């Protein structure tokens, strides 16, 4: 080796990443081997290798290795960045271009060893093509991955966090956790007796049980368990709540996913019985039940209003005796109004700082679609970096705003709040809670719900 060649020695760092798809070509060992071989051939000194490795069945989300790699090439004098395959640099075309531009900014060369791509030599068009190819392969990979997951679930493997009452063995099959299974049984049995998730939660707390995280039981968690069909010995995909024409919520049957089951905690018979009670209770608001008994006061004479579910209305004593011009309030009219009031009452109590523009209710799904579209436009070089950054900033701001609201909803969802009871259709509990909290309600002249203080 001559002295001139020595000067040409270059310093490189490498980045390797596994994905959840188990392509042996993409194993970390293989990526490193390919990179090392390339370094040997081209007089390159490999200073450091950064690795993001996913555990089986998971994806690399935070890419910690990549973050350290980024800092490292910022702080050190490096000539080259090496990867085995270009898609290791980013899972999606968009991510690839982003990462590549970060490297370019530092005037470092980028080489994808197997594909012989030299980033600094790529024309914008080639760059776009590379990004599109990565995007395309990514879609294929996701498809294969999802098929693989489906077939594992069919065989009885649990690919998610196991439900309370179960844990996973080393092969990913569900096994019963005895103490927790006893609590699940207790929840179903006591629900059939008490017929109220709030009462079941109270019963569990009185009996000295606590949730896995140590916090006391609440009706939302109880309800989740009562609706979980996986306890009957197979894995199901939860059905979505369907809004029907009458705005009532209907539960569709959960979709069976497995061919090989696991040990059941709850008999199908018991599970079905509980579903029937839950479904029936969510319908009681309209039939044979006065939601606002002992809560509603006459807007005219201020005396209490009595419910009459046969005639679907509330009337005060005066009116009932035909003595006055007091109004009749129909269930259809007043009950939805009160439910909305109860929800907003809770919203106000938690102090929402930022009020969302109600004229442009932005949907989360729409935003994610927009984001994806924007990324694709950028990856295929249809828009400039400046346009991309501006648009992305808007989308991210809106997403964050939604997330804040979402967190907020989650906090009230995880307890016995009016909002969560109403969402779940547990109207008898709503009624109980109003009485317990001594809430008294009437209407003002604008037909708005108001709370009144009655100290007797
Ligand atoms: Zn009256």
Structure, explained:
With 456 residues, the protein is an alpha+beta fold. It has three domains: 3-150, Resolvase, N-terminal catalytic domain (Rossmann fold); 166-283, Putative Large Serine Recombinase, Chain B, Domain 2 (Hect, E3 ligase catalytic domain fold); 330-451, no CATH class. The protein is 46% helix and 13% strand. The chain contains 15 helices and 16 strands. The strands form six sheets. It has a five-stranded mixed beta sheet with strand order 2-1-3-4-5, sandwiched between helices. A three-stranded antiparallel beta sheet has the order 12-13-14. The chain starts with a helix and ends in a 5-residue tail after the last strand. The relative contact order is 0.08. Residues 1-6, 351-361 and 406-413 have low confidence and may be disordered. Residues 298, 300-301, 303, 316, 318-319, 324, 326 line the site of zinc ion (ZN). Residues 298, 300-301, 303, 316, 318-319, 324, 326 line the site of zinc ion.
Question: What's a concise summary of this model?
Answer:
The longest helix has 31 residues, at 124-154. This protein has helices spanning 3-7, 28-41, 64-75, 93-105, 124-154, 178-194, 197-206, 219-226, 268-283, 317-320, 331-349, 364-379, 385-413, 418-423, 427-436, and strands at residues 10-17, 44-52, 80-83, 109-112, 117-118, 166-168, 174-176, 236-237, 241-243, 249-251, 255-256, 305-308, 313-316, 329-330, 441-443, 449-451.
